[in-house]
Structures are given as structure tokens and as C-alpha cells.
Write a structure and sequence with these properties.
Order of helices and strands: EHEHEEHEHEHE
Oligomer: single chain
Number of strands: 7
Radius of gyration: 16 Å
CATH class of the largest domain: Alpha Beta
């Protein structure tokens, strides 16, 4: 598993009901397609009750959105540090699936200079190559941009 997407809402929070329903439908789709070895096999989606898992909810920074467009899901992934990435709670299944497919791309893998140069020619996504001893803050910043670019670590 490369990515864990966590859906956390307080029971009293009513702003995100549309995003909640979309998350549940997409989670069912991803779970049913996961054994096929596609990108779905690298994603896990889980719901979290902040009343039960208080410490994790605090660590993630779970909040009740002030309006529907502020709804967020939390993403944890290897190499991204301890702080979660937040993605928008989508109101359309296709948009959330597209976000998940981008997040499921292999990240923080070691790469040689020649492989990095050839990869830039064959893909439409930007590639950021970090130093092997990159600081935690730099890794976290790169993790926050996973929807827009790929991240690798120099050999």
C-alpha cells in the first residue's frame, strides 16, 4: 500500500454530507478493483470516527468545515513525513478517482540521473528529485505536491 486516505468527520458536522457519500462510493469501487494490480491496489481508504480515535484525529487536524467546498480528506504515505496531506472532499466520483490515481503513483523511489532525464521526456508530469539526505521539511513539502508532480530520491 502506497497511500492511505482517511475520511474523518465529527458526527455534528453536516457541511460535508455530499463529499461523505462520494467518499463511500469511491471507497467501494477502489476496494472491489484493488486485487487487479492496477493503481487501486496501492490505495486504501478508511473512515475514522474522531470520537473514538481522538489522538489520531488531533494528529491529523480533523476539523468541521465552515462550508462544503472546505471539506478535506487526509492522506498518509511513506516518505511524506508525519504530517498528512489534505485533499479536497470531492462532490463528483470521477474527480476523486482522478485524485486517487495521481496519489497512487510511486513516489520517493530511488532514481539515477540518467533515468530521471529520460523520464522527463516520456511523461507529462514534472519530476522533482530530492537529495538522499533531504530534510524532513523538504520531504513533507514535496509530499504536499503529489497531486501535481512526481517525487524521487537521487541514488
Amino acid at each position: 500500500v502506497d497511500v492511505l486516505v482517511i475520511h474523518a468527520r465529527h458526527a455534528a458536522c453536516k457541511m460535508c454530507s455530499a463529499a461523505d457519500g462520494v467518499f463511500a462510493k469511491v471507497a467501494d469501487k477502489v476496494a472491489s478493483e484493488a486485487p487487479k494490480q492496477g493503481w487501486q491496489s496501492r490505495v486504501r481508504m478508511r473512515a475514522l470516527d474522531p470520537r473514538v480515535e481522538r489522538q489520531l484525529a488531533r494528529q491529523l487536524g480533523v476539523f468541521c468545515a465552515s462550508e462544503p467546498r472546505e471539506c478535506r480528506h487526509f492522506v498518509l504515505a511513506p516518505g511524506g513525513g508525519r504530517k498528512p496531506m489534505m485533499i479536497r472532499g470531492r462532490h463528483d466520483e470521477a474527480n476523486l478517482l482522478a485524485d486517487l490515481e495521481r496519489l497512487a503513483r510511486p513516489q520517493f523511489e530511488q532514481i539515477s540521473a540518467s533515468a530521471a532525464l529520460s523520464r522527463g521526456v516520456t511523461t507529462s508530469r514534472s519530476l522533482v528529485v530530492l537529495a538522499p539526505d533531504a530534510a524532513e521539511s523538504i520531504r513533507h513539502a514535496a509530499h504536499q505536491l503529489r497531486l501535481r508532480l512526481d517525487v524521487a530520491v537521487a541514488e
